[in-house]
Amino acid sequence: MSENETPPIPSRNRLRKAAVIEQAAICFMEKGYHATSVDDVARRLGCSKGRVYHYCPTKTDLFFEVHREGMRRLFEAIEPALRTPGSSLEVLRAMLVAHAGAMLRHHHFETVVAQGVQIHRFGATTPDQRATLSELIASRDTFENLFKKQIAAARDDGHLGDVDVSIAAKVALGGLQWSIYWYRPDADRGRNARDRLAVMMADIIIDGLRARG
Amino acid sequence: MSENETPPIPSRNRLRKAAVIEQAAICFMEKGYHATSVDDVARRLGCSKGRVYHYCPTKTDLFFEVHREGMRRLFEAIEPALRTPGSSLEVLRAMLVAHAGAMLRHHHFETVVAQGVQIHRFGATTPDQRATLSELIASRDTFENLFKKQIAAARDDGHLGDVDVSIAAKVALGGLQWSIYWYRPDADRGRNARDRLAVMMADIIIDGLRARG
DNA sequence: GTCTATATGGTGATAGAC
DNA sequence: GTCTATCACCATATAGAC
Description:
The structure is a homodimer of 213-residue chains. Chain A is mostly helical and 213 residues long. Chain A has 2 domains: 9-56, Homeodomain-like (Arc Repressor Mutant, subunit A, Orthogonal Bundle), CATH 1.10.10.60; 57-207, Tetracycline Repressor, domain 2 (Orthogonal Bundle). Chain A is 70% helix and 0% strand. Chain A has 10 helices and no strands. The longest helix of chain A has 30 residues, at 127-156. Chain A is globular, with a radius of gyration of 19 Å. The model of chain A has no long low-confidence stretch (mean pLDDT 93). The structure holds a DNA duplex (18 and 18 nucleotides).
């Protein structure tokens, strides 16, 4: 959403490729990567699989593109929160709210991200694919580290209890990311409802279930 | 772990079938259901797939057995917590600790449970399989409802903040269940380490990240 | 760029020997 | 009960017409 994100004039090809990736994400979300055939993706695009292979050389690469786009959206979503003015706790809260919102908004992409790179540990054969795999794993770690650092900062500022940073980050992010299993985008109309839900989820992570006092 | 759980003398056949299901769970965990071939399961058992098919008529049924056993272990784990003497909050905490422990202890089964019944919505063809599918979905709901009820009780007793019960249950369980993505059983020796981890996870859910006071 | 064949390999499931 | 051999099918990927 920042001003220099959008490329000037996206070419027709880039748009077509983006459409392929988007529909592939929906297919992978619905049936899982392995159960999805390239024909399924083509059917959803209303074309034959020749076109799909024209834009993406292998099914594995198709998955990588979806995963990469999913991660890109996650980073993009929390970026404004990182610049939020306020205490380290307020920044952390803004990050969690933004992340929860992104998980709901980009449900299909993030479901595929969760399916994970693990499945492809043996499927990546070419050196090129292996490099992409490493890149995606690294981007996951980088993302989690942003939260670990912020949790550590907030703890050192005295805002948090004496939590283990690594475990806290995993439980906190897990609580938000588990929404891929229960959230149904079509049952939830409108941006407002989604934003309210994201705030409620983040509040539970920050404050816990227990009453204050 | 209760005294009337163990069948008197499990027959050799029951043991063999249990071994098939156990190894299938590990395969499904490692590669996912669809990417796992029946030959993979057989190879892990050190036999040919003839034996696998002897104990389980189809691959779909094999998945169902793993899922059913995974759910059985989850119910078994929290059952003692339900009888814990103490306040509704203490019962809730005991349930969360027990659930976290079960997720870590039965990592391979619970990873498969998470893969979900959703994938089989179109794979279940026979009426028998459809019935099993409904049963498994129902058992998931029943399990979540146990936590919802306890959260509602603790809230009505004034122990919790003014949380939405349904969302609180989903975020809380999700925070624990996400461990299927990061926990590595073999990197974590000993029962004590696991139990401590489970307590830490549950504490984060109950108390949240923020400091008390 | 997009399509329609088609080559190729692997997988679920079955039949029948032992 | 367990194995080997085999069938039928489906999916990835390619080749080549248009």
